[in-house]
Structures are given as structure tokens and as C-alpha cells.
Amino acid sequence: MNLDIILDADPEWDSNTRWDELARSAAVAAIAESAFPQLAEGPRNVEISLRLAGDEEVRLLNAQWRGKDKPTNVLSFPMAEGAELSAATADGPELMLGDIILAHGVCGREAAAKAVPIERHAAHLMVHGTLHLLGYDHADDGQAADMEAREIRALARLGIANPYAIEALG
User: Fold this and answer.
1) pTM exceeding the 0.90 threshold for the entire prediction
2) In this predicted model, what pLDDT tens digit does every residue of 59-106 receive, in sequence order?
3) Most exposed: 5, 33, 127, 148, by fewest CB within 10 Å?
4) CB of 134 within 8 A of CB of 34?
């Protein structure tokens, strides 16, 4: 797969973790479980920008773009339309899927509440964010169920248990 992850991480994100490798694995798994698995085998380069930021930066972006003045765990900003994703099997310029931004504090607090390593929770959020870049949403129950099922399958590819089952037990 010709997938480029452009990673920018604030110092508060553990520099000993291979975030680039984790992000690539998460994106590959999400793409494989999407309606566009051909992106994995196609001749075009595909790019995702991943920003590992602090809560304040994410709060500002969330306020600006979603009208919610609080940090959130992950934000996604898709750049490709469905038609572009479907046509990505043809040669062409690099396909920019979009931007994903994770908030360190929120991610860390959620991971602690679930009693899982921050890397595992971040992988889940990266899968979630990648699915958003591929056009998935959870605006209604049907969409949410479909997106959740795709997340569960993608995380299984990474050896990560169903996080929603864990939440149900908690």
C-alpha cells in the first residue's frame, strides 16, 4: 500500500512510542474494513495527516469547526469525496484523505478510565478517525452501528479486543 502518514506530535505524546507505525497500522486496518479496500492495492499514493496535539489545540479546533468549546478525543477533517475514493484505483496524483487530530489529555483520561494503555486507545481513535475520512459517520443509529462494526473488525486486525464490549462491562 502506498500510504503516507504525515505525523506531527506535541512533546506530551510519549516519544518512545512508534506513533507513525501505530497510525499506519490503524489506517491500513480501517481502509481494509471500509467500502474502499481498493485504496490498499491501487497504484495511487494515499496520504493522511495525523496531528497528536494537546487538549487546548483540539478545544480551539472543536470550537471553530463544530461549535463545541471543549476538547474532544479525535477530530477528523475529510478532504476526499466518495467519487474520488471510488475512482482511486486509477493512476493519478496523490489522494489526500484528510486530517486527524487527537487530544492527548482526553485520550489519556479515556484510556485510564477503560484501564487500557494509551497506545491501544489511540489506535482505536485513529481507526475511528480514518473511517470518518472515508465517509463514515455516526449521526444516526444505523450509521453508528455500521461504523462501530467496521471499527471492531479493524481493531481485531490489530489484535485489539472490541472496545465497546469492554465499555458495556464497565
Assistant:
1) yes
2) 999 999 999 999 999 999 999 988 888 877 667 788 899 999 999 999
3) 148
4) yes
Kindly list the distances between the CA atom of residue 36 and the CA atoms of 88, 99, 106, 109, in Å, as whole numbers in the listed order. Answer: 9, 18, 30, 33
Q: How many helices (H) and strands (E) does the chain have?
A: 7, 4
Q: Which amino acid is at 55?
A: D
**Distance of alpha carbon 25 from alpha carbon 160, whole angstroms:** 12
* Predicted confidence (pLDDT) per residue in 122-142, tens digit: 999 999 999 999 999 998 888
Which of 54, 42, 60, 59 is CA-nearest to residue 3? 42
- The three cell numbers locating residue 95: 489522494
Residue closest to 122 by CA, chosen among 130, 131, 111: 111
The contacts of residue 78 (CB under 8 Å, 6+ apart) are 97, 98, 132, 133, 134, 135
Q: How far is 40 from 88, CA to CA, in rounded Å?
A: 10
